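Please check this today:
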Amino acid sequence: MGGAALLTLLVATWWTLPGAVPGITAPGPLIEYGLPVARLILDLCALATVGLSLLPRFLGFDDPGRTEATLSRARSWAVLTAFGWTLAALAAMVLSAAEVTPGEAPDPAAYVARIGNGQGLVISAACALVYTCFGLLAVRFGEKVPAELRVAVAIFGLLPLPVSGHASNWYWHDLSMVSMELHVAAASAWTGGLVALGVLLARDRELLARALPRFSRLATVALVVVAVSGLFNGLVELALSPTTRLPGSLFTTHYGWLVVAKTVFAGVIAVLGANIRWRLLPGVARRQATAFAAWALLEITVMGLAYGVAVALTRAAVA
């Protein structure tokens, strides 16, 4: 997933970079490419943290002797992904500060004080660090540190992130923020949950049979939320821009093409998810051998492509 997301992001970033403007200092390749890469790492670490935190809810708590070994690994990995999330958020903050003062030494403190994006990244980093502390306690004391608490902290850490995208510029600010936050939270739970199942449970028929039906119900709801909110936010950006007009701008602007690409990827993911739910799930529930691992890997790869486009969308000019 990470490789597909990184490749898509780099291509999309190169494709959407604005041309040089005489008299204006450009940030330079380190910022132009480093900042979206830092944001992608943040997103991937965040979704992994959310997915690993949800795993106890998918497996249930009625058979700790059978599930504890897997949950112990999940808790340990979640500490690492949360700490990676913290570092990526701080790196994105520093690079963002450098972007607004090209040719000068970055001043992250001033950037955070003046710019909402910096404040959002600091809050997200703080939540990830708090999760790291809770995660360490969970490694030591197990599910005595409730999974619900860890999930809540991780989801809350995602909510400030939309302020760094186009949604923060729309005059219907509140509705836009709610829509984007729902989009980010649902996408992380859906993608992170599938990654956790694919990595930790694909070879264990018994545990997969317990977890996949519960995840499948969550994934269905998340798919609807992600598709509707993502399309809504993309279209309103184009509709409210004074320099674009729908539907033509979907195919005449870089931003429009990215919206189309992300929508296509979402459609492919929906088809792959439907195949897992309707064709493979009955066999998984009967503890039979299935091709779940292969189909999950394919779906996760397409999710990576969608995440790469999503990060590029947050930085692409609408016009």
In short: Confidence is low (pLDDT under 50) at residues 166-170.
